[in-house]
Specification:
Elements (H helix, E strand, L loop, with lengths): L5 E5 L6 H14 L13 E5 L5 H8 L4 E5 L16 H7 L3 E4 L2 H6 L4 H13 L3 E6 L3 H5 L3 H12 L11 E5 L13 H19 L1 H6 L2 E3 L5 H8 L6 E4 L6 H13 L2
Parallel strand pairs: 1-2, 1-8, 2-3, 3-4, 4-5, 5-6, 6-7
Helix pairs in contact: 1-2, 1-11, 5-7, 7-8, 10-11
């Protein structure tokens, strides 16, 4: 099954509103011709800035193929949840996607499989595409339990969703040991886990649904390794960290995805 590739930039806690707008303008200049993503061979392009930068980035991206997402979402519509942002707030700001369960949220901010599930359901209900992150630490990989960790995160994070709901889900596999370390899974290591994830999704939602779900690689994808990773059967794009902060690097990864179509 042919799946439209998605190249998503996670800016993390970087970029002011002015800097973010300038970065998007630079990215737009470097993107492949044709804004009709998935129809012209151009992948979908997404940037996820900090909350305070979203409005400016949405304005800068207007009229282009660049979509804008958030780095988190809360499961309640309103209430006493200091520091959180609801789905309706993100919709009003112009967000189409939200990253959920990133390893840094799990590591530093007590994110659990249960809260990932609640956030994911809130996003789907609001029509926001949930980019659900899963992945193992270095210790877990060295202990040989990568599949156990990833399967638990998938099953618990997507519990209670229907095949129809999965139309609003993207999975991002991010080996935690490869995030910001300069290390990267080999093409074969990444493909092996992506293929395993698709087996789990097939068991949960059926072959047709599983075959349509995009699974991104999120562990230090860069211009020099993007082509090999994106050529793998079950790798449908990338969740890009550091390289998404440089227009030339990010555009190079988008171009690598375009060539793989």
């Amino acid at each position: 099954m042919s799946r439209c590739k998605l190249i998503a930039g996670n800016w993390k806690m970087n970029m002011t509103s002015a800097e973010g707008s300038q970065l998007v303008e630079a990215i737009k200049e470097l993107l492949p011709d044709g804004s009709d993503a998935c129809q012209s061979g151009v992948p979908e392009v997404l940037v996820c800035p900090p909350f305070l930068t979203i409005g400016s980035v949405v304005n800068a991206a207007r009229g282009s193929c660049v979509k804008v997402g958030a780095q988190n979402i809360h499961w309640e519509e309103s209430g006493a949840f200091t520091g959180e942002v609801s789905a309706s707030m993100l919709n009003e700001a112009g967000c189409t996607h939200a990253i959920i369960g990133h390893s840094e949220r799990r590591q530093y901010f007590a994110e659990t499989d249960e809260t990932v599930n609640k956030r994911t359901k809130a996003a789907v209900k609001a029509g926001i595409v949930a980019v659900v992150c899963v992945g193992e630490t270095l210790g877990e990989r060295e202990s040989g339990i990568t599949n156990d960790i990833v399967e638990r995160q998938i099953r618990e994070g997507l519990k209670g969703l229907t095949p129809a709901d999965m139309e609003k889900i993207v999975i991002a596999y991010e080996p935690v040991w490869a995030i910001g370390t300069g290390k990267v899974a080999t093409d074969e290591q990444a493909q092996e886990v992506h293929a395993f994830i698709r087996v789990i999704l097939t068991d949960m939602f059926g072959e047709a649904t599983s075959g349509a779900i995009r699974i991104l690689y999120g562990g230090s994808m860069k211009p020099d390794n993007a082509k090999g990773l994106l050529a793998q059967k079950d790798i449908d794009g990338g969740l890009i960290g550091g390289a998404s902060l440089k227009a030339t690097d990010f555009a190079a990864i988008v171009n690598a995805a375009s060539q793989g179509k």
